[in-house]
Design a protein that fits this description.
276 residues; mainly alpha; 2 strands; 2% strand; globular
């Protein structure tokens, strides 16, 4: 059955799950759903799917019962309905954050043979930029989107590398697509990954002058920690990275590729007690 946690639009979920149920049981019609959910007309469910009408909270609960959603699925379905009906950007981001915390779908891990693409941050940025536009052959246009800008030749070179590593390919219409929506290197350690980290840290320094405060978020914090507290901090950052990925995955209106860096390192370490 369709996994509700892979959806961010409740109407698309309802359309998909109804199609599946209808294939299993021909009697599971729009009229049947309307009767079981207590809707006023048999056409109400189809009007929900087309966006003509919205679900209220009680209607969402009744539909959850009709489709036999469990407790967690029902709570998530309610969030999707609230997210769809948000009236302000602040409300949308609030429910988007809550949706992200509920999504548990695994992230595909990059193959060892593919890690080389991390050596150049531009390749990673080009890969993510394919999510923003339908890119075909106008490499100059894509290059102008990048910050800092790239030449068409650089875009072409990076796309060919991504194709060689099976991270991106053209579809039947000639549009470049990522082969996986999201990737992670997991706990892998390699020279290419360290090079990527170093280069993106340098980009962070340049971002102070390159972008206005409205387009960046850069802050620092200096604290004292024990080794045990540092491990707790590292664990929290690991969870935060996952939440950020889920927020990104749940955002249907993304219009930019953002680089997020976390850096935690010592600037002073006390010598062990008893040593001089």
């Amino acid at each position: 059955m369709t996994d509700i946690f892979t959806f961010t639009e409740y109407r698309k979920y309802l359309a998909q799950v109804w199609t599946e149920r209808k294939a299993e049981d021909p009697h599971f019609s729009h009229r049947f759903i309307a009767q079981r959910a207590g809707f006023s007309t048999s056409a109400f469910f189809s009007r929900i799917l087309t966006g003509e009408v919205n679900l209220n909270p009680s209607g969402a609960l009744r539909l959850a019962e009709v489709f036999h959603l469990n407790h967690q699925e029902t709570r998530y379905f309610e969030l999707l309905v609230l997210f769809d009906q948000s009236r302000s950007q602040e409300e949308r981001m609030h429910f988007l954050d809550r949706i992200a915390t509920w999504r548990k779908s695994p992230l595909p891990q990059i193959e060892t043979s593919q890690i080389a693409f991390c050596r150049d941050w531009k390749t990673v940025a080009v890969l993510e930029a394919l999510e923003l536009i339908e890119h075909g052959d106008d490499h100059e246009q894509l290059g102008k989107m990048m910050r800092p800008q790239m030449t068409g030749e650089e875009i072409e070179k990076n796309l060919r590398l991504l194709e060689e590593l099976d991270l991106a390919r053209r579809d039947e219409a000639g549009i470049w697509r990522k082969t996986d929506g999201f990737l992670t290197t997991g706990d892998a350690e390699a020279e290419a990954i360290d090079i990527f980290r170093q280069k993106t840290m340098e980009l962070g320094i340049e971002a102070i002058d390159r972008f206005s405060r409205e387009d960046r978020s850069i802050s620092t914090l200096t604290v004292t920690l024990s080794k045990e507290a540092f491990e707790r901090l590292r664990d929290k950052l690991r969870h935060l990275r996952r939440e950020i990925l889920e927020i990104s995955r749940s955002d249907p209106e993304a219009d930019r590729v953002m680089q997020v860096n976390f850096q935690v390192f010592p600037v002073a370490i006390r010598a062990p007690r008893g040593t001089s």
